[in-house]
Amino acid sequence: MKDSTNEKNQITKQFKCPNCSSIVTYTGLLGERLPITCSACGTKGIINIPGIAVKNNDSAIEISHLKKVFGDLAAVDDISLSVKKGEIFGLLGPNGAGKSTIIRMLCTLSRPTGGSATVAGYDIVKHDNKVREHIGLVSEKMIMYDELTARENLKLFGKLYNIPNDSLNKRIDELLGFVRMEKWADHKIKDFSTGMKQRINVIRALVNQPEILFLDEPTLGLDPQSTVEIRELIRRINTENGTTIILTTHIMVEADILCKRIGIIDHGKIVSLDTPANLKTCLWN
Ligand SMILES: Nc1ncnc2c1ncn2[C@@H]1O[C@H](COP(=O)(O)OP(=O)(O)OP(=O)(O)O)[C@@H](O)[C@H]1O
Ligand SMILES: [Mg+2]
Q1: Hey, where are the domains in the chain?
Q2: pLDDT in tens, 89-114
Q3: Which of 70, 105, 217, 247 has most ligand 1 atoms within 8 Å of its beta carbon, as the pocket-test mutant?
Q4: Does the C-beta of 70 come closer than 6 Å to ligand 1?
Q5: Class of domain 59-284
Q6: Rounded to an integer, what distance in angstroms lies between the CA atom of residue 66 and that of residue 152?
Q7: The model's pTM
């Protein structure tokens, strides 16, 4: 049986009908799941077009019926949504809503119980290594070694991505400049304020120049001034680098001022998804 792929990642594939053995030709996108009907005997079925591909070129993330169950608890319960390239998308919800569980699955740290998702065009289960190359994560817990300097911390994470020394040193200087912390480069993290630590923690997630940055409650525990600084930094990462950002928060104002669209999560489900302006209108009606 002959298969062929064109430049739009479309593949024409031939399948053998399990009922009458006729050959059926189908064209779809790589990685797509399609309903199929045998033209000879009418038998219906589902086919998987194998491969890795971005299904929608405008999308950074596509989530389809994603689910995570812990025992009896559906922490993430049948979530579907897509995030556009270059967007700041907010996941807003109370404690225990399922925000971090969604982020952990999208970052390939936790395997879904059901459903699927692509991040930067790659399936989070089948192509987890590829996903990791294209993302940065600032998790709820700050990942930083107190006894190392800012530069040493950044270098350590850069090494995990196998970035060669020359490019890594250049990248670290750029990033320290980006957050105006060049003069703190060789000071130990333990001497920094929480706000300064968080600035380094955020640029740490940018060392590999990710297309998509996940920020899980990035202003949690910060004082008002540091909160403003980190929000400003998030905006600049998005506007100056074009990075797609997924942000979780339980602070409505934060989602409102930063995000283009917000998904409100409760008990593992999306209860509302819209622009901040439209969500506010709904609340008032
Ligand atoms: N590894 C786990 N084992 C069992 N239950 C878990 C696990 N991880 C999360 N949960 C549960 O899943 C639910 C969702 O948790 P999650 O951490 O995703 O919520 P969240 O929206 O990030 O909350 P928060 O705002 O407190 O960070 C919670 O009830 C939590 O107790
Ligand atoms: Mg959380």
Answers
A1: 4-48, 59-284
A2: 999 999 999 999 999 999 999 999 99
A3: 70
A4: yes
A5: alpha beta
A6: 37
A7: 0.81
